[in-house]
Write a structure and sequence with these properties.
two-stranded antiparallel sheet, 5 helices, rod-shaped
Length: about 160
Amino acid sequence: VQAVAKVIAETDAAALSLALREGTASVEVDGETVPLAADEVIITETPREGWSVASDSGATVALDLEITEELRQAGLARDAIRLIQEARKNSGLDVADRIALRWTSTDPAVIAALNEHAALIADEVLATDFAQGEADDTYGAPFTDEGLSLTFRLRKA
């Protein structure tokens, strides 16, 4: 049993796991083929740090959980879109109304994200005018999100 366990420990884990799922696993111990059944071997999958792994029915999926700067910026842009859409709704605007919008932020990451994704945000919220800066009195009441460090004002275009 110890010799079999040693050979299993030295075997390619992915190949052995696949063979066990297919029901055809075996190892060579002292020149002799030893068949293995799935209920005789315990397989523990430990993903690398920063990854999440799930397996089912012979398929394995691995996700890289690292949030890159690009992903972080895209997420901030999506958060801004959600807030602006909420503000549009709360302002009584029609779904098809075009808007003009001015925004400010004290967070450099939010500023970078909104500048980088300005075209996407403007398109999603139907803004014909989407710019960083203070708004004049023709714009509505300010909407502020402390979590995003974002303040914006909008009006019908």
